[in-house]
Amino acid sequence: MRIAIDAMGGDHGPAMTVAGALLAAKEWNDAHIVLVGDEALITPHLPAGGAPSNVTIHHASDVIAGDDEPVRAVRRKKDASMVVCGRLIREGAADAMISAGNTGALMATGLLIVGRIDGIERPALAPMLPTMDGSGFLALDLGANMDSTEHNLLQYAIMGSVYRNKVHGISKPRVGLLNVGTEAGKGNELTKAAFPLLEQAPIHFVGNVEARDLLHGSCDVLVCDGFAGNILLKAMEGTAGAVFKALKTEFTRSFISKLAAAILKPGLTAFKQKMDYTEHGAAPLLGIDGLVLKCHGSSDSNAFKNAVRQARIAHTSGLVGAISSETSRKRDG
């Protein structure tokens, strides 16, 4: 399979994208990595002896910046690395694309260049978030759409369930609806309208889920609108960062606390790794008629490597076709 990586996207540019591509190429020789971007800026990060046989460069002269207006940039910057990646998927020259660039522009690329799956009203950004047992949960939508309808949430639930089944091998994913209480009548107009639709959907719906229970593994798929979902994501990221910063301060306060830190270090390191988004690699844009994955802007080489792993599994499992079939079945039914 061929995986196109937007080599110019993200906070670190080609340095991390190329390093991640090289790690992935070494790990999986059945994956052909196409680095899309300015060849003059990509080449210095390749090995002195040249790139492996399953890594090539596809030159793209332009870049979409983080502060560019998404739709305008995608329409005007036709040779931007992100847009070229999308075009490679549309033309069948790539089976998946990965980018750590402008999230809005990536959504626009998915919609305008790659295209939606028939019947999907709004694609959703669906990252994996951590749980205490390490299994994690898929959350969608976490920022692609600030306003959603109950029918959007229904489609998110179906797509998320298919993703966890195909990519993570969960036979009957538990789907929860983010809400302010677990009772069926709780919530705003959106969640109240969505609840009966999810009850009737071809999924394993476990009802409303409160944010405080998510880290304890209350569901495998969490459904919400992008506004609430993005607040949830940022709150979790901020809390994790604050906790680890506070621990570091306390463990360096005195000689005794430094000794305690040395003893606890293996356990704390394992816990931090469990909470690390880079272990999950990337968030898929579900509902796009092709595999489009979004890495965090500050992703390191390990995150890009894991994004390639996700793309391989999603491709070999027929994820896009499965989502198309399931949503089509739901429409016909």
Layout of helices and strands:
Elements: E1 2-6, H1 14-27, E2 32-37, H2 39-42, E3 55-59, H3 70-76, H4 81-90, E4 96-99, H5 103-114, E5 124-125, E6 128-129, E7 137-140, H6 150-168, E8 174-178, H7 189-200, E9 204-209, E10 221-223, H8 226-251, H9 255-274, E11 283-286, E12 291-294, H10 301-316, H11 319-332
Parallel strand pairs: 1-2, 1-4, 2-3, 4-12, 7-10, 8-9, 8-10
Antiparallel strand pairs: 5-11, 6-7, 11-12
Helix pairs in contact: 1-10, 3-5, 4-5, 6-7, 6-11
Structure description:
With 333 residues, the chain is an alpha/beta fold. The chain has a domain of 162 residues: Isopropylmalate Dehydrogenase (3-Layer(aba) Sandwich), CATH 3.40.718.10. The protein contains eleven helices and twelve strands. The strands form two sheets. Strands 3-2-1-4-12-11-5 form a seven-stranded mixed sheet, with helices on both faces. It has a five-stranded mixed sheet with strand order 6-7-10-8-9, with helices on both faces. Strand 11 and strand 12 form a beta hairpin. The protein is globular, with a radius of gyration of 20 Å. The relative contact order is 0.17. Catalyzes the reversible formation of acyl-phosphate (acyl-PO(4)) from acyl-[acyl-carrier-protein] (acyl-ACP). This enzyme utilizes acyl-ACP as fatty acyl donor, but not acyl-CoA. Keywords: Acyltransferase, Cytoplasm, Lipid biosynthesis, Lipid metabolism, Phospholipid biosynthesis, Phospholipid metabolism, Transferase. One of its GO terms (molecular function) is phosphate:acyl-[acyl carrier protein] acyltransferase activity. Its main location: cytoplasm. It comes from Paenibacillus ginsengarvi.
